[in-house]
Design goal:
The complex is a heterodimer of chains A (486) and B (344). Chain A is 79% helix and 0% strand. Chain A has 486 residues and is mostly helical. Chain B folds into two domains: 40-151 and 285-312, Response regulator (Rossmann fold), CATH 3.40.50.2300; 153-282 and 316-342, Rossmann fold (3-Layer(aba) Sandwich). In chain B, β3, α5 (117-128) and β4 (133-136) form a beta-alpha-beta unit. Chain B is globular and about 70 Å long. Classes of the chains: A mainly alpha (486), B alpha/beta (344).
């Protein structure tokens, strides 16, 4: 592995720090919206008494609407031609609408029937996710097309991912905020106020990328005419949408990235609950106070390490390339996952903290590198199809992440049942149960890391090839301009 | 044009947010708005049977933990525990502790009663003076206490017998070890065993054997009965006294008899590991203090309706979950657990 910088970013391809930060603020909003609804849902059960099974349905049902709305939004944005661009109008309007919807969906008061709450929240959830898609899909696509430089893309994604972490730092405190009896009478009132605050933050931060980030993509005149005529017939649009969808799903390099993300991200998420159970019930012997302390410390170390890992991976990828950087980062997570086996020690609970920094490296690298690599795939796609389709690539990629997350949560429950865990026994679970829990906690993420490494190992868009594609595309754009001009 | 749209949007946003915030404040101005800023101090006097007994030490830890958690969680509440437990079990000391607590102006009393009759009177006097009383572990149901938290002794007896019947295939001679014959909770457990035995016609109870509640006396009784009934297939013990020291560790052949016991204290763990005891019903004694204190605070500070009797779930301990149970005991404040068990 030679540490040698092989490519220097041209001045025209550089994005200013201000613009990177403005773009990154959108990711703070993106993560805040994605996480807040989950962190605040506890109020639905604790404060309003909704059955946990119904709450599970409330979280799962919008995934089905996402399956349709995400790619449609991607297609719509890809094919929009306006004086403000094809992404920014949606980001601007989407941020405002999603912020208002989020604030409204939590305006619940105690004393009403469970089914009222269920339908109220379900309807608002579907509307919320619709506007969330309206904001997030064009936002993600915007990042893929902000620069055509191989490394500048990674730096942009690094800043975006870094800023997104601020949401994850705040999210674990939401429940404590809602429960604070100095501020609110109860958690339900806390949720009402908090939702307004979050809605406000979402609107203010969410419109910043739309206002301050400049769209680079300029549709050729020929393309514009084609699009205008295509809008005449809905059936033509639907056919084009499905054709595009199939083309995207057939793009092998894209699928490798999806497989890598799906396994790495969901493998780690799936065992999140197991790590908590093992720490509280095995390492701390059922001492929930002590367990919570170590889980809190683990989370803090993990977040700080993720921030450091994003910077490190962004830097190292400019020397060794994205593919190798991804494999390096994921190997660190693999090592951290294996290390957990030796660090669950009831005689020395502090050892549970040791794997945290290693596990964070892979997760820090994941969304930094994947965003950048998908942008490279979009170049390859343009080379072969003549179209820029960042919207649909981003939509499918993130829908796959969200779907995987839902599946991971569901599977986590089944696996916990398989281990024989029974709450009645508190810390006195059987030795067999603890062994099974530890096996799942180590084997699942380790296997997921290996699959992710193998998938990305076979990814063929090297730095040289990507730069080659880019040059061809630039040349093609110049030729096209000349044709149009003549 | 864009500037104009921005101005309009800004105005719209400010108005929408202001309306929402106003709505939230309006609907949430009930309790918090009316309450003053004074902190409500809740002093709970805790009177267990004996401060030397590790199960009550663990209950004390649970009470302190709950007091700390509640004080942290609610800014307007400060809960403290006043531990007034006699060194050794003594009814008069418990009576004195109740009277002193009332005179000192305690806010509530939490007690495990060593005697029914005398303490009923003291509890009623305290309640008449406006002090709420809750019992744990050992109840006085005839008193004016507002709630009890502990195990259902009849249910314990039933579980013991059913487990023993399973281990001896529902037939054969068994003996019951009963401890102090005058203790009402132990009597309830014995009667629970006897009632459950009616469902197993091939099980013959050779007798109920009582003894002073020391490990020496219990071990001696155990050995005498075994000598007298050589075909004895099993024991149901309503307390774990014979195994509170190592006396029997080398004197009993593992597996020869099936033994089920109430309680699973650290001293008993080697017996479970060796296969002398097949199953214990462990009492989560930490929760005696933890849950009772939470109920008292709910009753006093939040005026919540409390169930008069809340039963405690006992945890089955066998060789399969010995390590987990040992770690759980450590978490509940028990001492003397060896590394061997903690790392199982």
């Amino acid at each position: 592995m030679g540490i040698k910088k092989t490519h220097v970013t041209a001045e025209k391809d550089r994005i200013s720090w201000a613009e990177k930060i403005a773009y990154g603020l959108g990711n703070t909003v993106n993560n805040l919206l994605g996480g807040a609804i989950g962190y605040m849902s506890i109020v639905l059960n604790v404060g309003l008494g909704i059955d946990p099974v119904l709450i599970g349905s409330l979280q799962a049902l919008p995934r089905f609407t996402d399956a349709l709305t995400d790619p449609v939004m991607g297609y719509l944005s890809d094919n929009t031609r306006s004086r403000f661009g094809r992404r920014r109008p949606y980001i601007f309007v989407g941020a405002i609408l999603v912020g208002i919807t989020f604030a409204l969906m939590w305006q619940l008061k105690p004393g009403l029937s469970q089914m009222f709450y269920f339908w109220y929240f379900l309807i608002f959830s579907i509307v919320f996710y619709l506007f969330y898609t309206m904001f997030a899909t064009p936002y993600v696509a915007l990042g893929y097309e902000l620069t055509s430089d191989y490394h500048e893309r990674t730096r942009l994604m690094g800043v975006q991912n870094f800023m997104g972490q601020f949401a994850w730092i705040c999210l674990p405190w939401l429940y404590a905020f809602m429960e604070n009896d100095r501020l609110f009478t109860d958690a339900v009132q806390g949720a009402r106020v908090l939702a307004v605050v979050i809605g406000g933050v979402v609107i203010v931060l969410g419109i910043i990328p739309a206002i301050l980030v400049k769209e680079r993509y300029v549709a050729p005149e020929v393309d514009k005419k084609e699009k205008q005529s295509a809008l005449k017939g809905m059936s033509e649009n639907i056919a084009a949408f499905f054709k595009g969808l199939v083309l995207t799903l057939k793009r092998k390099e894209f699928l490798k990235l999806c497989i890598g993300t799906f396994f790495l991200f969901n493998g780690i998420q799936l065992v999140g609950a197991f790590s908590s159970y093992i720490t509280i019930f095995y390492v701390c012997g059922g001492d929930t106070g002590m367990g919570a302390k170590y889980m809190g410390l683990f989370g803090t170390i993990n977040t700080l390490s993720t921030l450091a890992a994003i910077a490190f991976i962004t830097w190292i990828s400019s020397f060794i390339g994205k593919r190798k950087a991804f494999m390096l980062a994921t190997s660190a997570t693999l090592l951290g996952s294996l290390l957990k086996w030796f660090c669950y020690d009831p005689m020395a609970p502090w050892k549970v903290l040791l794997p945290a920094p290693l596990i964070a490296i892979g997760m820090g690298g994941l969304f930094t590198l994947m965003g950048s690599m998908i942008a490279d795939v979009c170049d390859l796609d343009e080379l072969e199809t003549g179209e820029r389709r960042e919207g649909i690539f981003g939509a499918i990629y993130w829908w796959m992440v969200k779907l995987g997350l839902s599946l991971a949560f569901a599977l986590s429950g089944f696996l916990l049942k398989w281990t024989g865990y029974d709450i009645i026994f508190v810390g006195a679970q059987s030795a067999e149960t603890f062994i099974k829990m530890r096996i799942v906690d180590v084997v699942v993420p380790a296997t997921a890391c290996i699959i992710a490494i193998v998938a990305v190992y076979r990814y063929k868009l090297t730095e040289e090839k990507s730069i080659e594609i880019r040059k061809t595309l630039d040349l093609r754009h110049v030729e096209l301009k000349e044709v149009v001009a003549s | 044009m864009i500037k104009h749209i921005k101005n309009r949007l800004n105005l719209f946003l400010i108005l929408s947010l202001s309306l929402l915030i106003l709505n939230c404040n309006k609907s949430g101005s009930g309790k918090a708005g009316n309450s003053d800023n004074e902190i409500q101090k809740i002093n709970i006097t805790m009177i267990a049977k004996s401060s030397k007994n590790p199960v009550f030490q663990s209950a004390h830890e649970g009470a302190e933990q709950a007091a700390e958690d509640l004080s942290d969680k609610y800014s307007k509440i400060d809960v403290t525990i006043d531990w007034k437990t006699p060194l050794n079990e003594n009814i008069n000391d418990q009576v004195d502790s109740i009277h002193n607590a009332v005179n000192e102006g305690t806010d509530a009393i939490l007690i495990s009663c060593s005697d029914r009759k005398i303490l009923t009177e003291s509890i009623n006097q305290a309640v008449d003076k406006g002090i709420p009383v809750m019992t744990f572990d050992s109840d006085v149901p005839e008193s004016k206490r507002f709630a009890f938290y502990g195990s259902d002794d009849n249910e314990i007896g039933t579980r013991l017998l059913e487990k023993l019947a399973e281990l001896i295939d529902g037939k054969g001679q068994i003996a019951l070890l009963g401890g102090n014959q005058d203790a009402p909770n132990l009597q309830n457990r014995i009667s629970g065993i006897k009632k459950a035995a009616e469902n197993f016609p091939e099980i013959q109870i050779v007798g109920e054997f009582y003894h002073p509640e020391t490990s020496e006396d219990a071990a001696a009784t155990f050995l005498q009965v075994n000598a007298k009934y050589p075909d004895l297939k099993g024991w149901a013990m309503v307390g774990g006294w014979p195994f509170f020291d190592e006396t029997l560790l080398d004197k009993v052949e593992p597996g020869k008899q099936q033994i089920v016991v109430v309680d699973a204290l650290p001293e008993q763990l080697p017996y479970i590991e060796k296969g002398i005891i097949q199953m214990c019903l462990g009492q989560p004694t930490f929760t005696w203090g933890e849950i009772s204190v939470k109920q008292i605070v709910d009753h006093i500070a939040f005026k919540k309706e409390i169930e008069p009797i809340k039963n405690m779930n006992l945890i089955q301990v066998t060789s399969a979950n010995l390590g987990g149970w040992a770690r759980q005991l450590r978490a509940w404040g028990f001492k003397g657990l060896t590394r061997h068990f903690l790392t199982m």
